[in-house]
Fold:
Amino acid sequence: MAVLRNPDFDRSGVVNTIHAREFFVTANNQRIEINRQDVVRFVRVLALVATIVTVLVLGSRSMYSVEPSERAVVLRFGKFLTTSEPGLHFCIPFVDEVLSVDMRERTLRLPIGAESSRVAPDVSEEDVLMLTGDLNAAAVEWTVQWQISDPQQYLFTFHDSSLEQDEYLQGVISVVGRTVMNRLVGDYSIDEVLTGKRSEIGQEAELATQRILDTYECGIRITDLQMQRVTPPEQVKPSFAAVNEAVQLRDKYINEASRERNELIPKANAERDKAIREAEGYAARRRSEVKGEIDSLMAQYEQYAKAPEETRRRLYLESMERVLSSVKDKTIIDSDLNQLLPLLQLDRDND
Structure:
């Protein structure tokens, strides 16, 4: 092993000048052997490890993935930069901030019992009673399905720092939905709200709620609104039940009459068509017969005009032939015969 032959020591006894590849350091009466190549190799390995760690950290921070049901809002120096679609994306580490937004539909049952989602007590009948157009009360409940349509507006434009964003927006939807539903229910009678107009009210409420939310620029879209439980107050339920029973009975009779009508009308139409076809056939047949008779009379008239006596005689004989051919027993009497009775008696004796 090579040893430093002429080392220069300072007052503490540590070598401050290196003249060989390997050397000894004497300090506090201890001898330490240092290999210069090992030191260089260690420094290089340490630098390589630091570089790899830095690259891995920067690589992991510069890539982010967005799920199909999400959108990502990218902030650069705390300001909105862009919105990323599902897939793999890149950003600047420690400069860009990525916020994920769930785009799936949510369902909210209204009313929730309060004008804000800060408090959510159990729903009582007083919370769901609404005044109808004919000054009756109805207990109305409905569901709203909504989802985020604009992640930027959802996160920054319309929010309350004291609440979670979903909680705050559900409170907003509750207030807007209750206002809209109160107005719409007030435009219809109690019978319409309970029966035939529920679907129409739900469609109008969906459009009106969406219009108001659009003015707030809260970044959400109403995808569906359905009327759920619509009942009269407990005090008048028996009367409404009787009315509903009568309505159902009326509908039953109407359906039975419609069914009988649908059965009888086709039969009547078939019989009518059959009678019309028979009448048309008879009319066509009679027209042909009458035309033939007319043609025959015209031919006879032409013959009569040419030979009146012969034609008259022929017509007489033809008529007699037709008449006599249909008679079973015939008695022919000579017009010059004076006594008719003896002939008749002889005829009886022969019988």
